[in-house]
Amino acid sequence: MRVRECPECERLWEDYTDATFAFMRLDAQVKMAQLRQEPPEVMALLREGVEAAAQCRDAALEHLKQHEATHQVRSAAAS
């Protein structure tokens, strides 16, 4: 549940979006490197970058979910 009036929701969504785009860019670089048949060392470094980007994306999503849950708790308490 995204609360548009909440600055923290907006910041966390922006973080998640940025992390997702970073992951997608790195993943595309890996695919291009595969097509170019880059050396194994280069591929290993690129894959490490993709894995790190995936972890950042997953962490950003988890922070977002945790924050959004606080809005649900407040809404339930107010009812």
Protein described:
The structure is a single chain. Helix content is 86%, strand content 0%. It has one domain. Helix 1 runs antiparallel to helix 2. It is mostly helical. It has two helices and no strands.
Supply Rg.
Answer: 18 Å
Number of helices: 2
Query: How many angstroms separate the termini?
Result: 17 Å
Sequence stretches where pLDDT stays below 50 over 5 or more residues: none
Determine the structural class based on helices, strands and strand pairing.
Answer: mainly alpha
Give the % helix.
Answer: over 70%
How many E-type strands?
0
Strand content: under 5%
Q: So what's the overall shape?
A: rod-shaped
Overall tally of structural domains? 1
Largest sheet: none
| Oligomer designation | single chain
Give the averaged pLDDT, no decimals: 91
Pattern of helices and strands? HH
Please give a quick description of this structure.
The chain has 79 residues and is mainly alpha-helical. The protein is 86% helix and 0% strand.
Defining traits:
mainly alpha, 2 helices, 86% helix, 79 residues
List the helices and strands and how they pair.
Blueprint: H1 7-35, H2 40-78
Helix pairs in contact: 1-2
